[in-house]
């Protein structure tokens, strides 16, 4: 019997197969992942356009991280991280919104930003890097988000990372994407509205409640690991097999104001998450999504979400991209809006906890 579980954040239903044999499901996922990896190795050409020495093949750098310092306006061949404009951007930074009415329809120009963060000089995933290198990537995330947030034209900033052949990424070199849009996307707006409504009714943050509930249930929950300042969960309503969420334990609505002293710990959390899932299913493709509150300037001018600092909680979602897994029914999901998860999140959490050093309960020392 399958279960329908409602995501309290988006209010969308997820269909979870609670009768699955976890060992058989993991074996099926491993076979798919390993097959994709073998196929992808022949396509992974080095050097690529994001590699050192080929900087002329991309747009001019917006910013570089060189020897731990942010470098604007100039380029150095000794870069550690590069940020460049996307060649074919969804949003362009030049111009004005030019809001207008066209044949009774609202129209504005697609003004924003679309940046590529080239994370490292080498073709190396996060579990293959030194932890400080991931901390540097997080610093660049914050730096670019803070800079773009100064622009009142931008309503929302969104970072995502697609990695591996099944992630729809067009470049094998590890990179992330930062997009600033002139309005808050409908999916994000729905999440913000539901969390605000929850706060208005209960005067509590919904995400904090999710954290408390998963930690309270212990062995039967989706708790993967509790750290000093963060927690990794496979939430009860996860819509993808082996989906995990990384959240700060202390309430915070805005990733941009996370103290740099926590970057090293967050880098370790993210690295361990990738390493743990890979140890379970192999060299996976995945997507990582960073959610934070909208631009303060833009929202403040419109009096949007006056309680957002209390009702929202920044978080990171991570999920493997498994293209041919039987039982997903992608056409049904696309047409109905129902997501199907063939591996119960609480089962995924048990499997992940068993792979983490420190014991089967996944608790930190």
Explained architecture:
This protein is an alpha+beta fold and 365 residues long. 31% of the residues lie in helices and 21% in strands. The chain contains nine helices and 16 strands. It has helices spanning 22-41, 131-148, 186-202, 206-217, 263-281, 296-301, 308-311, 330-336, 345-355, and strands spanning 2-6, 13-17, 63-66, 69-72, 81-85, 100-102, 105-107, 113-118, 156-163, 175-181, 223-226, 230-233, 244-248, 286-291, 315-320, 339-341. It has an eleven-stranded antiparallel β-sheet with strand order 4-3-5-8-10-9-14-15-13-12-11, sandwiched between helices. Strands 1-2-16 form a three-stranded mixed β-sheet. A hairpin with a 2-residue loop joins β3 (63-66) and β4. The two termini are 38 Å apart.
Label this structure with key terms.
disordered C terminus, HIT family, subunit A, 16 strands, 9 helices, single chain, alpha+beta, 365 residues, 21% strand, 11-stranded antiparallel sheet, globular, 3-stranded mixed sheet
Derived from helix and strand composition plus strand pairing, the structural class reads: alpha+beta
- What's the alpha carbon Rg, rounded to whole Å? 21 Å
Question: Averaging pLDDT over every residue, what do you get?
Answer: 89
CATH superfamily: HIT-like
Kindly identify the CATH topology: HIT family, subunit A
Q: Which range best describes the helical content: under 10%, 10-25%, 25-40%, 40-55%, 55-70% or over 70%?
A: 25-40%
Secondary-structure element string: EEHEEEEEEHEEHHEEEHEHHEHEH
Sheet with the most strands: spatial strand order: 4-3-5-8-10-9-14-15-13-12-11
Ranges where pLDDT stays below 50 over 5 or more residues in a row are 358-365
Q: How many discrete structural domains?
A: 1
Q: In the CATH hierarchy, what is the architecture at level 2?
A: 2-Layer Sandwich
* CATH class term: Alpha Beta
Q: How large is the count of helical segments?
A: 9
Terminal-residue CA separation: 38 Å
Number of strands: 16
Q: How does the overall form come out from the CA principal axes?
A: globular
Instruction: Describe the main β-sheet briefly.
Output: 11 strands, antiparallel
- Tell me what portion of residues adopts beta-strand conformation: 15-25%
């Amino acid at each position: 019997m399958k279960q329908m579980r409602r995501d309290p954040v988006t209010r969308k239903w997820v269909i979870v197969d609670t009768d699955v044999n976890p060992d058989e499901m993991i074996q099926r996922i491993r076979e798919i992942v390993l097959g994709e990896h073998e196929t992808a190795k022949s396509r992974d050409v080095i050097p690529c356009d994001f590699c050192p020495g080929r900087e002329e093949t991309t747009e001019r750098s917006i910013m570089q991280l060189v020897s731990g310092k942010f470098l604007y306006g100039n380029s150095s061949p000794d870069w550690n991280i590069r940020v460049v404009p996307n060649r074919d951007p969804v949003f362009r930074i030049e111009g004005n919104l030019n809001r207008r009415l066209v044949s009774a329809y609202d129209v504005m120009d697609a003004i924003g930003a679309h940046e590529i963060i080239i994370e490292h000089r080498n073709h190396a995933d996060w579990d293959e890097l030194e932890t400080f290198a991931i901390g540097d990537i997080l610093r660049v995330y914050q730096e670019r988000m803070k800079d773009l947030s100064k622009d009142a034209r931008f309503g929302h900033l969104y970072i995502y990372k697609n990695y591996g052949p099944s992630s729809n990424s067009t470049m094998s070199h590890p990179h992330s994407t930062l997009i600033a849009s002139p309005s808050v996307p409908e999916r994000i707006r729905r999440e913000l509205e539901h969390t605000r409504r929850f706060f208005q009714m209960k005067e509590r943050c919904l995400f904090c409640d999710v954290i408390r509930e998963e930690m309270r249930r212990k062995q039967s929950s989706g708790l993967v690991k509790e750290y000093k300042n963060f927690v990794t969960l496979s939430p009860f309503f996860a819509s993808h097999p082996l989906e995990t969420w990384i959240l700060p334990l202390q309430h915070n609505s805005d990733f941009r104001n996370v103290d740099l002293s926590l970057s090293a710990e967050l880098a370790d959390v993210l690295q361990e998450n990738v390493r743990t899932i890979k140890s379970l299913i192999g060299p996976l493709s995945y997507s990582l999504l960073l959610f934070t509150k909208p631009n303060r300037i833009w929202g403040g001018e419109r009096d949007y979400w006056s309680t957002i600092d209390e009702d929202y909680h920044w978080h990171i979602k991570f999920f493997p991209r498994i293209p041919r897994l039987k039982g997903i029914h992608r056409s049904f999901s696309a047409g109905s809006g129902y997501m199907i998860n063939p591996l119960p999140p609480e089962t995924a959490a048990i499997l992940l906890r068993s792979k983490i050093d420190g014991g089967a309960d996944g608790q930190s020392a």
